[in-house]
């Protein structure tokens, strides 16, 4: 209960901060984007993990305001990087199921993108399969609305949820983010390389890109490359970084 009232207060203060984690294409050795990840610097508890407060924010409905802040802040940061000439092709933000289902979503995204002046295809929304189960027609309508705005769409934690292939072919998405559970043991596993390869083939057939999450070692990256997944994200490249450190990371690469 304490955490809930703290979360309510944090929303209108400045206790939230976005960290950014780069995504790399091994084929070109280029940073292709960055994922924005929210951090809550609580005045007495210290850093509270989103794994802890996002579920609470979902239950209480506070997620709308937190998500609105996240999206606007991500746009503000990207606009700044474009202006400074920092070569960051795109920025993604995570959407939880309740944000995705909210009737205000498409209009909100449209108005923030319009106001920011950012080319919409440089923004990406990461959705989990769980956000899209239930009413599939409704999910497809929302996804089409977002594509109409021009933002990119990805399915996060792909392979752990419920999306059937029949649904997947109807989703106007751009990228499958291969869940890190398939990456973790890929070097030793007798099954996980084949699972990754199958996801890559499926994505290719459907016209989607892939990126692997949670890549921590060069051996994992090499196994992924053998399965033709060259886009990676994880501690091997960088941990999620506060803005100044992320900018330093980007400057050091050029
Ligand atoms: O950054 P970290 O690994 O601690 O994130 C934990 C979880 O919180 C991940 O599932 C991530 O997708 C989620 N998360 C991080 N930032 C946000 C955010 O801004 N909005 C939503 N809805 N989820 C987020
Ligand atoms: O659910 P989502 O994929 O958005 O979760 C992103 C979370 O994964 C963030 O909390 C981030 O801190 C975490 N993360 C990012 N890279 C790695 C990694 O290489 N290994 C592990 N274990 N976690 C990672
Ligand atoms: Mn994510
Ligand atoms: Na994920």
Automatic annotation (TrEMBL):
Give the signal sequence positions. Answer: none
- Segments crossing the lipid bilayer: none
Residues annotated as domain EAL:
1-254
Name it.
EAL domain-containing protein
The scientific name of the source species is Azospirillum doebereinerae
| Shown chain mapped onto the complete sequence | 429 to 682 of 685
């Amino acid at each position: 209960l304490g955490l809930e009232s703290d979360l309510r207060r944090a929303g209108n203060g400045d206790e939230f901060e976005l960290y950014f984690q780069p995504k790399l294409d091994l084929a070109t050795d280029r940073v292709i984007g960055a994922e924005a990840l929210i951090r809550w610097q609580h005045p007495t508890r210290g850093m509270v993990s989103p794994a802890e407060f996002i579920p609470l924010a979902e239950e209480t409905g506070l997620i709308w305001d937190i998500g609105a802040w996240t999206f606007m802040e991500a746009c503000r940061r990207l606009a700044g990087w474009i202006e400074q000439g920092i070569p960051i092709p795109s920025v993604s933000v995570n959407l939880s199921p309740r944000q995705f289902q909210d009737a205000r979503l498409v209009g909100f995204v449209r108005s923030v993108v319009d106001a920011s002046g950012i080319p919409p295809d440089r923004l990406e929304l990461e959705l989990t399969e769980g956000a899209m189960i239930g009413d599939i027609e409704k999910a497809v309508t929302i996804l089409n609305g977002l594509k109409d705005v021009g933002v990119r769409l990805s399915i996060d934690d792909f392979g752990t949820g419920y999306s059937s292939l029949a649904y997947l072919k109807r989703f106007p998405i751009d990228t499958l983010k291969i869940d890190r559970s398939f990456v973790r043991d890929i070097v030793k596993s007798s099954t996980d390389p084949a699972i990754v390869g199958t996801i890559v083939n499926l994505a290719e057939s459907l016209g989607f890109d892939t990126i692997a999450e949670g890549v921590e070692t060069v051996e994992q990256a090499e196994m992924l490359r053998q399965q033709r997944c060259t886009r990676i994200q994880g501690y091997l490249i960088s941990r999620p970084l506060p803005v100044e450190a992320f900018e330093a990371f980007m400057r050091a690469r050029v």
